[in-house]
Amino acid sequence: MVRVPRGAEKWPRFGPRVGRLGLHSVLSIPLLLRTTPVGVITVYSHAKDAFFDVDGEIAERYAPPAAAVLYSAQLRERDRQRVVELTKALEVRPQVDRAVGIMMSRTAKSPEQALASLRQMSNVRQVKVAALASEMVEEAVRRARQRRAVRSDE
Question: Rounded to 5 degrees, what are φ and ψ at 33?
Answer without folding.
Answer: -110, 105
